[in-house]
Amino acid sequence: MAQLWGGRFTGETDGLAFAFNASIHFDRRLFQQDIEGSIAHVTMLAKQGILEEDDKESILQGLLGIRKDVEEGRLEIDDTYEDIHSFVEAQLISRIGDGGKKLHTGRSRNDQVALDMRLYTRKQVQETDALLKELLEVILNVMEENVETYMPGFTHLQKAQPITLAHHYGAYFEMFRRDRQRMEDIYRRMNYCPLGAGALAGTTYPLDREYTASLMGFAGVTQNSMDSVSDRDYLIEFLAALCTVMMHMSRFCEEIIIWNSNEYQFVEIDDAYSTGSSIMPQKKNPDIAELVRGKTGRVYGALMSLLTTMKGIPLAYNKDMQEDKEVAFDAMDTVKNCLILFTGMLRTLKFRKERMAESAMNGFTNATDAADYLVGKGVPFRDAHGIVGRLVLYCIEKNTSIDRLSLQELQEISDKFEADIYEAVSLKTCVAKRLTIGAPGPKAMKETLKKYREYMDN
What is the pLDDT of residue 379? Predict the structure, then answer.
């Protein structure tokens, strides 16, 4: 059992207690960040005259050698060490001797792990943002190609008014664009370096914290040493943002699952993102969409776990905070994997455009436009609403749609209907008349697409 402490203790740690206390089986993924932080720390110590230049060079060469050996598979991070910090330090001492013991000068494991986790999370924020941008590009491509692909818009899962596929996808563009804005906001707020905070009260060594922060690309340093080692707000914010990303994907997946059903048949999911049934040969199941929907709860659980862990912790560092990592790592991995698969599924999705348009017509999505038509003929809206309601009931009884009725049938319900009613209730006209900002009309949509493309190109 390799650990960084022991002078105060005369007895051996119980084996089960050591394993319970150890974190190396999950914090090994912080290896790169631990090396990066140690390199910056040692460089600063030498700059401040706390370390001799020879010691600095020896430690740096040792750290770089350890990193290279792990990356190339010559050195394995094993579970005999308590955590990734003790592994790196023990390896360093074994390679360069007592000089390696100077690595920890002016540093505590508390500010060390705070730094490692912040560096790792910062990288995850960037990677998640890149995946969201890739998803937005796929969504925008579909929008640009489907400005006149008509489909029903829904409220209460009931067909409501005609829209376009571009308009429907645009709602998700807005959602995932907000997700990217959250990533930017989280990155900006978390990008401050806790190293130099020590265990909780700083250190007597003349550290240059600003210099250390600059070496690792931080905007500055944290301003309170107690908060520095006990803060996990940035991680809670990131998990909350990941929950929102998953919620957006889950909503989209729900719609794709519905659209893929035999009853709708709006889309066909590519074979690469579907599975079959072990007993029913006709089945083509939307398993990837269902799994993304299902894994949303898993990410929600990570956020609630960390919030619950942090809610009763007094200042400053407590071992409870070690529980931040496993759930956070799992959530980060889950969201990135879901984004990759979800983007691939969207990219290969095939649309049955005629079926979508037919569904919009058969669902009376042009009923409001028929009422507006009557208003244009001088009928009060409330009366027009009632007339079209009777018209829809008649169509249901005849198993038809408004545009398929003869003029005679229409005029039996209201003599205000004339031959121009057919153009007025066509999907193309219904959509084209909607010109307000954010509406599905081609003119409004083209302006929106222009803004979206500018956003993506910046």
Answer: 96
Contact at 8 Å (CB) between 356 and 149? yes
pLDDT for position 9: 45
Residue 404 — φ and ψ, nearest 5°?
-95, -5
Task: With H, G, I as helix, E, B as strand and everything else as coil, classify residue 164.
Answer: strand
How many whole angstroms from its chain centre is CA 36?
Answer: 26
Candidates 41, 86, 156, 248; catalytic one:
156
Provide the H-helix boundaries in 146-232: 165-190, 209-215, 225-230
- Helix then strand count (H, E) for the chain reads 19, 6
Query: Phi then psi for 254, rounded to 5 degrees?
Result: -60, -45
Contacts of 101 (CB under 8 A, 6+ apart): 93
Predicted local distance difference test score (pLDDT) of residue 278 = 66
pLDDT value, residue 5: 43
Residues of the chain with pLDDT under 70: 1-13, 277-279, 281-283
Count the neighbouring beta carbons within 10 Å of the beta carbon of residue 449: 17
Residue with tokens 């998640």: 128
Q: In angstroms, rounded to a whole number, what is the distance separating the alpha carbons of residues 265 and 188?
A: 44
Amino acid 21: pLDDT: 80
pTM of the full structure = 0.92
What does the block give as tokens for 13? Answer: 């740690």
pLDDT, position 442: 95
Six token digits for residue 172 = 């998700």
pLDDT at 10: 52
Determine which one of 25, 94, 261, 277 is catalytic: 277
Residue with tokens 């619950």: 308
* Block residue for tokens 């545009």: 403
Q: Is residue 156 annotated as part of the catalytic site, yes or no?
A: yes
Tell me which H or E stretch contains 375. Answer: helix 367-376
Strands 158-164 vs 192-193: parallel, antiparallel or unpaired:
unpaired
Q: Which residues 6+ apart lie within 8 Å of 48 measured at CB? A: 205, 206, 207, 208
**Secondary structure (3-state) at 350:** strand
pLDDT in the model for residue 104: 96
What's the pLDDT score for residue 17? 84
C-alpha to C-alpha distance for 207 and 111, rounded to whole angstroms: 13
SS3 content of the chain, % helix, strand, coil (to 5): 65, 5, 30
